[in-house]
Fold this protein.
Amino acid sequence: MTLVTKDEATRIAAAIAEAEKATSGEIVAMITAQSSSYAYVSVMWAAIAALALPWPLIAWTWWPIQTIYVLQLLAFALLAVVLSQRPVRMRLVPASVKRARAHRRAVEQFLAQNLHTTAGRTGVLVFVSVAERYAEILADAAIHKLVPESEWQAIVDRLTAAIAQGRAADGFIAAITDVGVRLARHFPPGSANPQELPNHLIVLPPE
């Protein structure tokens, strides 16, 4: 699953390169189809349902316990298969859990992409997780303390609105441009402005 085509990814890469011309900061754009498999969810709900099944059968029928036990096993197996289908499974995951897992993956990738090691501590990650319908901007210490959280959130809100309208690439480009403006305001390019991080859109495999 992806929100952008190959041509749109090229446009996003060009937007990153253009934004970084005006700043010594670094911008990384990243998208993943899903931040977690949530495999445990289908098993958990199937187990709960299977554990509840015997009680009404014991109370309201004369079926032997062996029959009820077999039905319990069959119910668990059937539900585990049905609930493991991704659209069904995702609906069973609480929104707070999905947000927490997507945020955790964003933080993991911020570190994995070495955004915390740039020379001026001015790395910024624009992160989107599709299945969780989650977007976030993570900024390193130097730029984070200079830009109010409300400004980052406003950029995220515009990005998620564009994605909801089917304009994911335009949303990414606008977000990258907005991030670049804030980086340029506080960290203009110096005499030495090495390219420390990749400019292309990073597409992560789902977990």
Q: What stands out?
A: The longest strand covers residues 26-32.
